[in-house]
Amino acid sequence: MTFTELWSQLEPIGRWAETGGYRRYSWTAADADCRAWFAEQARSRGLRLETDRNGNLWGWWGEPGPGAIVTGSHLDSVPDGGAFDGPLGIVSAFAAVDLLRERGAQPVKPIAVTAFVEEEGARFGVACLGSRLLTGVVDRSRALGLTDDSGVSYAQAMAAAGLDPDNVGADEGLVGNIGAFVELHVEQGRALEPLGHAVGIGESIWPHGRWRLDFTGVADHAGTALFADRKDPMLPYASTVLAARRIASERGALATFGKVIAEPGGANGVPAAVHAWLDARAAEEAVLRETVTTVSYEAEKASAEQGVSFSVRQESETPVVRFDQGLLNRISGVLGKAPVLPTGAGHDAGVLAARVPTAMLFVRNPTGVSHSPAEHADRADCEAGVRALAAVLEELACR
Ligand SMILES: [Zn+2]
Q1: How far is the CA of 73 from the centre of ligand 1 (A)?
Q2: Radius of gyration of the chain (CA)
Q3: pLDDT in tens, 156-165
Q4: Secondary structure in 3-state letters for 293-307
Q5: CA of residue 81 to ligand 1 center, whole Å
Q6: Residues in contact with 306: Cβ distance below 8 Å, sequence separation at least 6, in sequence order
Q7: In this structure, how many other beta carbons lie within 10 angstroms of the beta carbon of residue 326?
Q8: Strands annotated E in the chain
Q9: Model confidence, pTM
């Protein structure tokens, strides 16, 4: 099946008509439709479908076993995300399998196409949850107890989707069978466009993390409470947003508040509390830590000035990832002049890199915009990505 045919099947699932963005949250109806699509792709190719204990999907070409060459990505999205982040890696994986079969390639190692659950952390707050559970870097009881914004726990959501939360946990046997993992992903940022290349090779992932900031004040009437009497948590929150931008840019880091909840949320009241999520990233771990510490210090200070209490809690942190040099050299050998790039975005590949030789391929994103409906990759570049992935799989699994 061509890339275009595969792509057009998945494209309508979970797209929000008003925004044109995707809302494919884990264990929802849209997610179930994406998973059914995956199962059908595996079935129609004669790939053996396995759902691992954490709900990640695997389509095996050949008997599952040691030295497997695994490729894939994720199907879930951020709120109003783009079409490419995640699905491009999975569609390309199936298309690469088709291409290898057309060429009559004979793998001597098992190949698996995989889809990891809850990569974006959009519903339960912890990114790469499926791959973290698989590799045991997230405690199963912590994961099962995570709740979404309406109070539904991860265990409840999984059970509602027909999976058994009692099974959740590390799977050393499965991880032990992975000989190499290659994740193809749409480029996030804009490095390939000026270089004039359709496909790049991942070198490293910046350390990054997510912190929850809670500003707690006192709810009051917007029309009667004097400024002098207010304990308004919106003020220290607002100054923290500006401080984070300044602090991060002074250090060459990145800091973003993309989610904020004001309680109780009345338009004519001083809020009782503001909960905000800070996403911070930097090239070096020490710089990341210093950025977050300084932002927290400024938030604490601004809160005290307003009589507001402040607390900060880390929800996730991912250390710097450097992809396997031997694998990178082998892939560079196959892909010739493809540029080697770092990225500021987290991926399941970053989680797996701690356990197995891992690599990433990036497909050019002409504007660099991601996590938005404007995210884009040209069809010709996607097809170049499929050819590159097929060449890499052939090198790793057929020799
Ligand atoms: Zn992604």
Answers
A1: 7
A2: 22
A3: 999 999 999 9
A4: HHHHHHHHHHHHHCC
A5: 10
A6: 217, 230, 231, 232, 233, 235, 236
A7: 11
A8: 48-51, 57-61, 68-74, 111-116, 178-186, 199-205, 208-216, 220-221, 254-263, 269-270, 273-281, 309-318, 321-322, 340-343, 358-363
A9: 0.83
